[in-house]
Specification:
The chain has 4 helices and 8 strands. The protein is of the alpha+beta class. The strands form 3 sheets. It has a 4-stranded mixed beta sheet, sandwiched between helices.
Length: 157
């Protein structure tokens, strides 16, 4: 496979994005094994932009590993600085999987509402619960999570 060719501007943009990343693949004393290549491929599929840390003191060996990884994984070599290698490959489109048991949209629940007077029958009510709501033990509908208010707004009220 051939590696992806990028313009200097694209390479610069990916370098800036990779600045805050932590290394996700480590190359140890055994060098560039099949397991390391497999992990790097999985990381590229998941993240697109990855850092690889090489625990070797030989700069020529690190440069060779950088080029081998880029060519075999069909990735663009972004940066080789010290013992860190940065690689980029566009992430593949993921198909959305919807669980069969998942029910989208609102749900209807039947709730028994007891009368305040003791001798009357309980009333059956149908309540619609949206995705961000929950049904309480008392039979009322509430938001699932309380709406967050910033500290600044809390101090104003």
């Amino acid at each position: 496979m051939s590696q992806i060719q990028l313009t200097p501007a694209q390479r610069k943009e990916h370098r800036s994005e990779a600045h805050h990343l932590d290394p996700v693949v480590m190359v140890g004393g055994d060098g560039l094994t099949d397991a390391v290549k497999k992990e790097a491929d999985a990381a590229l599929n998941a993240h697109g932009l990855i850092k690889v840390r090489v625990f070797s003191d030989d700069r020529a060996a690190r440069e060779a590993m950088f080029q081998i990884l880029a060519s075999e994984l069909n990735a663009a070599p972004i940066q080789h600085i010290g013992k860190l290698l940065v690689l980029w490959r566009p992430t593949p489109e993921r198909e959305k999987t919807v669980a069969e048991d998942r029910m989208p949209g609102p749900r209807d629940f039947k709730v028994l509402k007891y009368s305040k007077r003791g001798g009357q029958r309980p009333e059956v009510k149908t309540l619609r619960v949206l995705g961000n709501q929950r049904l309480t033990a008392g039979g009322s509908v509430k938001r699932a999570k309380p709406k967050q208010i910033s500290i600044k707004k809390q101090s104003q009220t």
